[in-house]
Structures are given as structure tokens and as C-alpha cells.
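Annex B. Sample input.
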Amino acid sequence: MTHGSPSSRTVNCPLCRRELRSAGQAYRCAKGHGFSAPELLAEQSTLASRLLRGVVGSLESTIALSADLASAAQEDGPPSLLRSVERELDDGKRTLAFVRARLLDDPDELDAYRI
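Annex B, continued. Sample output.
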């Protein structure tokens, strides 16, 4: 596995998103947040999980809205609107399935975000 040189990648603070500077196994951002390497890894993992849960919630909201709009368009909207909304609905469902299948460690954890 190729990891790249340390200078080839920017690591951001999980609390404020500013660039982190490393000093051995310690990291600090310009705002003053400091982490040991294990703490930083845990914080980055927590941030990624929180962001993914937010993405899932947003996708589920988009899917619900698209389904409502598709129903309304089917009753009295122009065919072009219905096709557009149905495409958005299909895209949202595919994206949500991808996120759940590939990126989430524990999909059961998302029950609070389901529509």
C-alpha cells in the first residue's frame, strides 16, 4: 500500500478544519487544538461517522421530498417535471444505497435518521 510522503497530504483539525502541523506524534492547529496521534485518529473517525450520518439524513430528506413532488407531478404536472423529479428520486436512492453499502460501518446506527 502506498501512503505518500507526509508533505504530500494535508491533515485538518477535526474540530475547526484548520491545517494541522505535526511534531513527531503530536498534532496542533493554528487555533490551538492539540492531539496525540491516537487521539487524532479517533477524532477523525468520529468526525467521518458524524458527517456520513448527516449525508444519510440529507439524502433521505431529498428522497422524501422528491417522492412527494413526483406524486404531485403525476397528478397534475407536466410530463417533463415528472421525469425530472423521478430522475432525482432515482439518483437519491442510488446514492443512499452506495453510502450505506460502502461507507457506513454500522447501518443499524442510522435508525434515528430513517424516514
